[in-house]
Amino acid sequence: MRAAWVLLAALAALSAYYVYLPLPGTVSDPWKLMLLDATFRVVQQTCHLIHYLRLSHHLIVLNYLICTFDKLKSVSSEDINITDAVFDGVEVRVFEPPAKRDERLKRSVVYIHGGGWALASARTSLYNNLCRIMAESLNAVVVSVEYRLVPEVCFPEQFYDAVRATKHFLQPDVLAEYSVDPSRIAISGDSAGGNLAAAVCQQLSKDEQLAVRPKLQALIYPVLQAFDFNTPSYQQNMNMPVLPRYVMINYWIDYFNGNYDLAHSLLINNHTALDVSQALSFRGHLNWTSLLPSSFKKNYKPVIQTTGKAEIIQEIPALLDVRAAPLLADNETLQLQPKTYILTCENDVLRDDGVMYAKRLENAGVEVTLDHFDDCFHGCMIFTIWPTDFSAGIQTRNSYIRWLDENL
């Protein structure tokens, strides 16, 4: 009996050691975040073991687990009609509020979910719940894009899916079918979905044949560049749940169908060293020493290698493709972007991506709202359902929907 208690105490100590992470004092719900992160790590390590044993790709297993335990059927209610459709070969889920008396047309949001271009779905409860609440709160038609995922397809297929679905919806006859006002449409997304939303907006802004254009773009902690993995937020939050730096780099490698052996070189910016000629023209577009406020720069120093590995860009040219990294866009493209909302979190490696994009858009003459949260973390906005319900999720979601309501 005594041995059993000793073993139990040892297991409890080991569990606490595994779960505990030193977090900034400003993070909301720190212990809940530690438990969520520990769960993620256990699941990810299990999936990587399956991958190592060559039983299946780890992302396929991980996404299977997510969708199996979290999938919802398309169930309509009195408040919101939920239907699945196909827009130009791309699956979408459409959330429609009931028509109101004397109301002719509704506003609309095209939403692109996150998940590192590899995980999650418009049909999971997290995104189903977010889009349903958006549709109810805004009395808007919400189109949630179910783009194909890594490893089934890699860049640029996710981008193409998002563009095709959005352009299909923007056709006047399709908008009429859903009773949508062509002048009140927003493009939005979170994380990797924010990346796709920004890239879609840039693409649409240059399409001269497009009759209807989005009025707004709203980007939630977007990932916007793979040029510099040593911005202050990457350095400050390199081990932060839910998205440590090495995980974000691996998401980029998976998106580009690259080799994990390149991860360390990317981490120390070997791919954008001063002797890598392909990168030189982009350096000024994300010079964080001039684009970030001093409160974000703190005492961090730029990591700029003198000599690097040009062969990385030759092997993965998409690292410098604007369709994958919207922050690399030229000023002429940025001038064409619609009124913009960008939400960033202090405890997030991607914080500076969003802040730099906001500053560049502002410098290009675009009206921008940068909504920054000191106590929040990456991915928090979708975590509003028990057992992953965070005060940070409610706080950011309410602020995001409030901005859309006031501007759309």
UniProtKB/TrEMBL annotation:
Give the UniProt keywords, A-Z.
Answer: Cell membrane, Endoplasmic reticulum, Glycoprotein, Hydrolase, Lipid degradation, Lipid metabolism, Membrane, Microsome, Signal-anchor, Transmembrane, Transmembrane helix
> What are the EC numbers?
3.1.1.71
Organismal lineage: Eukaryota, Metazoa, Chordata, Craniata, Vertebrata
Q: How does it sit in the membrane?
A: Single-pass type II membrane protein
- Enzyme category, top tier: hydrolase
Active-site annotation:
191, 348, 378
Where would I find the Alpha/beta hydrolase fold-3 domain in this sequence?
A: 109-267, 321-381
Q: Which reaction does it catalyse?
A: a 1-O-alkyl-2-acetyl-sn-glycerol + H2O = a 1-O-alkyl-sn-glycerol + acetate + H(+); a cholesterol ester + H2O = cholesterol + a fatty acid + H(+); 1-O-hexadecyl-2-acetyl-sn-glycerol + H2O = 1-O-hexadecyl-sn-glycerol + acetate + H(+); cholesteryl (9Z-octadecenoate) + H2O = cholesterol + (9Z)-octadecenoate + H(+)
Gene (name only):
Nceh1
**Family statement:** Belongs to the 'GDXG' lipolytic enzyme family.
- Its predominant location is membrane
Q: Does the keyword Endoplasmic reticulum apply?
A: yes
Question: In its UniProt entry, what is this protein called?
Answer: Neutral cholesterol ester hydrolase 1
One GO biological process term? lipid catabolic process
**Entry-linked InterPro entries:** AB_hydrolase_3, AB_hydrolase_fold, Arylacetamide_deacetylase, GDXG_lipolytic_enzyme, Lipase_GDXG_put_SER_AS
An example Pfam family from this entry, by short name, is Abhydrolase_3
